[in-house]
Structure to design on (384 residues):
């Protein structure tokens, strides 16, 4: 039987690569539904190509053109973010690929879990914000959460077949676009500079998060929730070549690593096909083309966001939700040329020092905390 997929964020970097995997494996997958924010033209093209049953466009102002574009096809069209929750709960869906960006991913993940769907999760913000609720619900509903994030996929792969305690997770980090820039130059960094990631082609938000290392901080939090490992046993190592995708150290001193070219098709296909693997004949790693793999300590002064994330994880409650909400606003402002690079961390610190802290949040508390932290960041950045 084919797996029937609902792909949220199908027009983005992960979404498009997920559709590549579907196209390469038509005997394994079919696509039931797709969702995007406002890019209705590619969404319409994808819907037709993959012969889907229905699509959601979150931005309601794009409903009409999308509806028009699909008028000759038997494809249902819905508009509004909330529609994604019913989309994923459909009886025609087996697996939900959450490739949304930001806080918007949380509710659809929860809806998918409650409907008993397997979740292939790229949207790390789901776990950064609501990891406690999400993992508890997944256990309750016996729903697997398969990581797509390359580091977490690597850790997952290292853990297959292991029953012994873990000493340490080692999350590798390319260092992002500004790795080789001296700290004194950071204040003048432009969005264009920060968008030039040395190894990965990704959406704009995660590329900026990679430059600030907010992304790596989020990945520490994500690893904590996915694998149940405390912050003290998760370390981060700079690995500029992005060949070792992450590692697990066991109590006997053994370290397992997962290696490969930096290409998200691999973790996406693994999340969908586990315990099997895709056949991708073009993937041939050439060790001699990569004779040197290096590792270095993260400069915690240059990258304060990493410690802020560790601290948010230790504080628990709404701390990481505040970090995420304020970061989203600051990154959007930076991309729009409305603030400077150091203001991103400035906005996070401002929001965290003022936001209401809820120790045991519900989903509604997270929603309120997200709004509050966004407002605080906007206030700090003097956005209208
Ligand atoms: P992109 O910005 O490329 O794509 C985001 C997708 O989500 C687009 O389809 C966008 O639609 C849609 N979207 C955004 N906001 C909403 C919303 N409110 N409602 C509905 N749809 C929405 O992001 P990426 O693919 O790079 O990243 C997706 C997630 O995966 C992020 O959480 C990221 O951290 C994570 N990730 C990404 C990696 C990568 O290589 N790209 C690697 C590891 C993790 P539209 O096109 O209409 O704007
Ligand atoms: Mg990653």
């Amino acid at each position: 039987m084919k797996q029937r997929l609902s792909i949220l964020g199908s027009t983005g970097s992960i979404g498009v690569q997920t559709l590549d995997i579907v196209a390469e494996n038509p005997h394994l997958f079919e696509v039931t539904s797709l969702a995007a924010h406002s890019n209705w033209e590619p969404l319409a093209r994808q819907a037709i190509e993959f012969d889907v049953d229905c699509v959601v466009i979150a931005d309601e102002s794009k409903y009409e053109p999308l509806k028009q574009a699909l008028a000759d096809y038997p494809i249902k069209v819905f508009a509004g973010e909330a529609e994604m929750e019913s989309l994923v709960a459909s009886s025609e869906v087996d697996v939900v690929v959450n490739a949304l960006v930001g806080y918007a991913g949380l509710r659809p993940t929860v809806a998918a879990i409650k409907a008993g769907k397997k979740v292939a999760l790229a949207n790390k913000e789901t776990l950064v914000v609501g990891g406690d609720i999400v993992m508890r619900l997944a256990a309750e509903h016996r729903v697997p959460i398969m990581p797509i994030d390359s580091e977490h996929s690597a850790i997952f792969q290292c853990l297959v077949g292991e029953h012994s305690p873990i000493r340490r997770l080692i999350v590798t980090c390319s260092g992002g676009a500004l790795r080789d820039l001296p700290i004194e130059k950071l204040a003048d960094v432009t969005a264009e500079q920060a968008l030039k990631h040395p190894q990965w082609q990704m959406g704009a938000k995660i590329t900026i998060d990679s430059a600030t290392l907010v992304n790596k901080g989020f990945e520490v939090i994500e690893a904590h929730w996915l694998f149940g490992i405390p912050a003290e046993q998760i370390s981060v190592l700079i690995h500029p070549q992005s060949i070792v995708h992450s590692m697990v150290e066991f109590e006997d001193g053994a370290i397992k690593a997962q290696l490969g070219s930096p290409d998200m098709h691999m973790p996406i296909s693994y999340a969908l096909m586990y315990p099997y693997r895709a056949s991708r004949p073009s993937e041939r790693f050439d060790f001699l083309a990569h004779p040197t793999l290096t590792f270095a300590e993260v400069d915690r002064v240059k990258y304060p966001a990493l410690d802020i994330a560790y601290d948010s994880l230790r504080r628990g409650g709404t701390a990481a939700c505040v970090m995420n909400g304020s970061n989203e606003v600051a990154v959007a402002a930076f991309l729009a040329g409305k603030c400077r690079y150091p203001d991103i961390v400035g906005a996070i610190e401002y929001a965290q020092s003022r936001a209401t802290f809820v120790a045991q949040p519900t989903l509604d508390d997270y929603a309120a905390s997200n709004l509050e932290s966004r407002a605080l960041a906007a206030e700090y950045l003097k956005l209208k």
Q: What stands out?
A: The mean pLDDT is 97. The pocket of NDP (ligand 1) is lined by residues 9-15, 35-39, 58, 81, 99-101, 104, 122-125, 149, 200, 202-203, 205-206, 264 (CB under 6 Å). The chain has 15 helices and eleven strands. Residues 113 and 376 are 31 Å apart (CA to CA).
